[in-house]
Amino acid sequence: xxxxxxxxxxxxxxxxxxxxxxxxxxxxxxxxxxxxxxxxxxxxxxxxxxxxxxxxxxxxxxxxxxxxxxxxxxxxxxxxxxxxxxxxxxxxxxxxxxxxxxxxxxxxxxxxxxxxxxxxx
Length: 121
What we know:
The chain has 121 residues and is mostly helical. The model is unreliable at 106-121 (pLDDT under 50). The protein has helices spanning 8-12, 14-24, 47-57, 72-87, 94-108; strands at residues 2-4, 32-36, 60-63. α3 (47-57) links the parallel β2 and β3 (60-63).
């Protein structure tokens, strides 16, 4: 599930989308919350808000830049691992993914350098 960090309204819709999934979706669905467009200067939603929302729903959280390929691969890999864990009947590792996501996001804060790109593609 993704929202645009430059669009407050898209973030505000996430709660409604989560309720719809919880009420009408599969009971064992894997979800990652993604705040996209972190490469943009006019941020309307802070990292801490997205993280807090994800934690309240017990789901993984990443901030990404599709434009600069930041955290894209990490978000998909985390989702894949979460799906496999659920299929194997294991407990999700939301806390470890949250810590990794936080570390990746903090690495870029205050830096004027272009975000580090993953090795994919």
